[in-house]
Structures are given as C-alpha cells and as structure tokens.
Amino acid sequence: MTRAVIFDMYETLITHFNTPLYFGAQMAHEAGIPIEKFLPLWRSTEDDRTVGKLALEEVLSMILKENHCYSEALVNKMAEKRTATKVELFKHLHSEIIPMLQALKEKGILIALISNCYFEEATVIRNSELFPYFDGVYLSCEQGVKKPDEEIFRRCMKELLVQPEECVYVGDGGSYELETAKGLGMKAIQAVWYLKEGCGQPTGRMPEFPQAESPLEVLKYLER
Description:
Blueprint: E1 4-7, H1 24-31, H2 35-44, H3 46-50, H4 56-66, H5 72-89, H6 97-106, E2 110-115, H7 119-126, E3 136-139, H8 140-143, H9 150-160, E4 167-171, H10 177-184, E5 187-191, E6 211-212
Parallel strand pairs: 1-2, 1-4, 2-3, 4-5, 5-6
Helix pairs in contact: 1-2, 4-5, 5-7
C-alpha cells in the first residue's frame, strides 16, 4: 500500500526550461568575464554549493576577485538576478502539478520532497506555493548530503515513518535518483512531462523505468 509519494523538484515539479536561464554562461556575460574563465571556477564549486559548504555570494565573490572585477554591488546584482530567475520558475508550473498534489492530500498520502539544490534555491522553495503541500522536505544544501546518496532518502523515510515498499518516488532521473529509489525498494517513476528534446536537460527518457506523461498520471501508480 502506498503511504507516501516523494518528489524531486527540478524538472519534476518545476522546470528551468520554460523561462530564461541564469546559469554559468549567463552569469559570465553579466560579469563581463570570458566563459572559458568563468565556467571552470563556477563548476568547481558545484559539490560544495550543493551540500551547503558554500553560498552563492561567496562563490561569486571568489570568481570576480580572481578575474579582477569584484564589487559588492555586482555580487549583489548577480545574486538577486539568479534568485529572481528561480522565483520565476514557480510561475510556470505544469497545469496539473497543483491538482496532483491536492489529489494526493485528499487520498491521505504523505508528500515529501528530496532535492539537490543550493541555498539561494532553498529559500525560494520554502517561500513557494508548493511548500505547504510537503510533509517532509530534504534539501541537499541543508542536509549536507545529496542524491543519489541513500542517506538523504533514509532520513526522509524516517521522518515520515514509512518503509521503502510504501513509497513511490517520482523524478526526472537526472541525479541517478531513480536507481537509488528502486534499489532501496521504492516504486520509482520517471516524470517526463517537462522533457524536451535538445534543450540541455540533464536526462532523456529512461525506458527501464515506468514513465508518467503528466502529473495526474502519477496517481495511477499508487495502486499498482
């Protein structure tokens, strides 16, 4: 019997690819730094940002100083613009996301979130319209551990007081999360409603996993 549905956030509940991006390339342009100089420094901080060892402002300050263009005003401008792009994502939800979450609540199903994210994203998530639906929220930057590590899944299940076989995990599969969920004994479903060909998303269709073509289709997997 399904007692909990655990979701990934990016490319599952929200997507980066329906709005303008503000990733490394765009930040390099903002700062006036050649991409080939900006990106290696930015990407080298990925793991530390994901597990909460570095904040966005610290990283931007380091990169700007390394390229001799640091100013507090520029750091603040870039940080505010990046945060604003993350807020914008929640204004472009798939039309069935809220109805799906409401339907799960009506069925008495626990809803949880496990997401790899950075501090600036965590703040946006906690202020979003989706946040009140979650019975458990496990964000990598706050937990100090990221997917696909089993530990973040185990912490979530412990809080919800559920066993793996009582859980459905729904994600796009970009962080080897589906493999971890399945390996733990969960029913792992790939969310494909945001997938677009050739747009730079972290993964494509994974035929080895059941796929939900729309958010409401997740409901049919509760009884299987």
